[in-house]
Design goal:
This protein starts with 6 loop residues before the first helix and ends with a helix. It is an alpha/beta fold. Strands 1-2-3-4-5-6-7-8 form an eight-stranded parallel β-barrel, surrounded by seven helices. It has one domain: FMN-linked oxidoreductases (TIM Barrel), CATH 3.20.20.390. α8 packs parallel to α10. Helices cover about 45% and strands about 15% of the residues. It is globular.
Length: about 270
Amino acid sequence: MVREAGPTLRHVADTSNGARHAILIDPADQTPEMAAKRCVAAVSAGSRMVLVGGSTGTDMMNVHNTVVAIKEALELITWASSQDSDLDEESWRVPIVLFPAGAAALSPAADGITFMMLMNSTKPRFLIEEQLSGAPFIREAGVETLPMGYVVCSPGGRVGEVGEANLLEAGQNDRAAAYAMTAQSYGFEILYLEAGSGAHTPVDPELIRTARVSCDLTLIVGGGIRDGETARRAVEAGADWIITGNLTESFDDADELQGVLTEFIREMNS
């Protein structure tokens, strides 16, 4: 039996309006209240998805409280928009998706979860063991799964170290093609090329371009993307989604963050 895609996966896979931006919230680096404030600013600027996760040391309660705070903030504004014909209610309906480092960072309140394999990890833990631990919780909670292949590219950063990844290096286009083909053959819906949080260089555009022509999956790119021009190069190479996390955490003032992300997204799609 073929399973029909849920609403969150349909949202992520929809490329009819071009490339989109998503904000990554790490609950270990901010309070739930600050996370909600930053998400409201990001969605106001045009971000179309919120990812929650990242650090390996984040506990489930912190993740859950963060997801709930973000959902409540966005739902309040969505309701307010529905009462004002001059406001766009639909622009506030963005999914909150778990991006967990492991099975201890889950929440039943999320709209979906990137159910992923760190494809170039050399540790069984990130290839299958964390997934086995988390699957019963996800099924019981009814959280929509977004099947995803996750490939860490050079320089890799902390995620490459923790995941003991055999990094995909610039120029290794044949490997990039093989990962893309393998991800599609496994039945994944998404392929994520990650340079690592706070990476000094982003994913090589040629790796993105190779992955794009090697599969029909939704292609996400993140890590080391600090400005709209860098994001635009990734989009021109074939990225469907651009993820930023550290950039967002640089701002505590919501108005300032909204302005920066508005310009970022404008330049990304210019």
